[in-house]
Amino acid sequence: MIDIAGILMDNILYVILITLGGVLISWSVHFVPVGGAPAAMAQATGIGTGTVQLAAGAGLTGLITAGAMMQITDNMALVLASGAAGAMIMISVTMMVGTWSYVYGVGCPPASAKVKYDPITKDRQDLYVSQGTEGHGLPTVSFVSGVIGGGLGGFGGSMVYYALMSIENGLALPDLVGIASIFAVGVFFVNAVIPSYNIGGTIEGFHDPKFKRFPRAVLSSLVATFFCAILGVLAIGGL
């Protein structure tokens, strides 16, 4: 006999997990130092690419590590930790290589124009900011902020993937992995685009005044991801 009540409660839990994962992804984007085109020309602090690309890159890496862990165990804590670690490694390597390019390629020191002193190292920043720029490179506070953002994004994305993989259905494992991965990536993109409009260009990390805008993006992502979660659970559960 099919336990309808049990299946319903499980599906409600999966919707909650997916929604929470989307909210974490949205929040994480505000931690990642995004510089866009100005940073690529060493005229702004951060990584020289866009919000969506960075969030998706960290997220995809997190999904790969979470998926690899799920081949070994279905322990939720280990899966989420693996996803967070993978995303943190990806964003850390990206920021490290970017710093090498700025310092040894362009010849400019990592410095922020948003704060006079680095909140972590207490090093003075304004003396090293080139005229006509908003800073350049990735100072310590931006690097630490980016690692935190990668961890939150990977954790949230892994939560989405874990919930989708746990839905009861008659799919073969390769098919379920493919569908769950595609949906999880979609959730990542949705929750990367919403904060990008909220940030409006560049952000240096949690010390940037724009960081205070995150509640608006998180609320929007909560609503958007909730509807995505319902559709995802109903679609995968009905296959």
Brief digest:
By secondary structure, the protein is mainly α. It has helices at 4-29, 36-40, 51-70, 76-106, 140-165, 173-199, 214-238, and strands at 44-45, 111-112, 134-137. It starts with a helix and ends with a helix.
Task: Describe this entry's structure for a reader.
It is a single chain. The chain is mainly α and about 240 residues long. The chain has a domain at about 45-110 and about 135-235. Helix content is about 65%, strand content about 5%. It contains 7 helices and 3 strands. It has helices at about 5-30, 35-40, 50-70, 75-105, 140-165, 175-200, 215-239; strands spanning about 45, 110, 135. The protein has a 3-stranded mixed β-sheet with strand order 1-3-2. The two termini are about 20 Å apart. About 50% of the residues are buried.
Keywords:
239 residues, mainly alpha, three-stranded mixed beta sheet, 7 helices, 67% helix, elongated
Helix content: 55-70%
Mean pLDDT: 86
Please give the number of β-strands.
3
For the biggest β-sheet, the strand order reads 1-3-2
Largest sheet: 3 strands, mixed
Using only C-alpha atoms, the radius of gyration works out to 19 Å
**How would you spell out the order of helices and strands?**
HHEHHEEHHH
Low-confidence stretches: none
Which geometry do the CA atoms define?
elongated
